[in-house]
């Protein structure tokens, strides 16, 4: 798929994507990730002789690491390969840098880590979209990215 030319669409770059469309895209992505994590949990339970891996279990730190890593890989891979996760494609949202470049691994990593803080502070990083004129969250600001509404093109 060719990268859309946003140089002629300054209104899309100025407005960004609102909070609710972001949350719906995240909701879709969480379902996909949850399916993957169910498979991983099933494998871990099998390896743990049929017992769930819970806090205090010797496999628990490894399980947390695997869950974090799979989540990281899911988002970073999609962001660096077209700027859209499957949820973002469904909701016609695309991620690019504020200077209209594709996302590289460094930018994607910054965005992912900062997004954890956006959620971690009771969602304040996401509520920032109501304050920012371009509807950006903390992770958009820290990674110098913007989510574009492809319906406006």
UniProtKB/TrEMBL annotation:
<feature type="transmembrane region" description="Helical">
    <location>
        <begin position="108"/>
        <end position="131"/>
    </location>
</feature>
<dbReference type="InterPro" id="IPR051791">
    <property type="entry name" value="Pra-immunoreactive"/>
</dbReference>
<dbReference type="Pfam" id="PF06271">
    <property type="entry name" value="RDD"/>
</dbReference>
<protein>
    <recommendedName>
        <fullName>RDD domain-containing protein</fullName>
    </recommendedName>
</protein>
<feature type="transmembrane region" description="Helical">
    <location>
        <begin position="23"/>
        <end position="47"/>
    </location>
</feature>
<keyword id="KW-0472">Membrane</keyword>
<keyword id="KW-0812">Transmembrane</keyword>
<keyword id="KW-1133">Transmembrane helix</keyword>
<feature type="transmembrane region" description="Helical">
    <location>
        <begin position="59"/>
        <end position="79"/>
    </location>
</feature>
<feature type="domain" description="RDD">
    <location>
        <begin position="18"/>
        <end position="142"/>
    </location>
</feature>
<dbReference type="GO" id="GO:0005886">
    <property type="term" value="C:plasma membrane"/>
</dbReference>
<dbReference type="InterPro" id="IPR010432">
    <property type="entry name" value="RDD"/>
</dbReference>
<keyword id="KW-1003">Cell membrane</keyword>
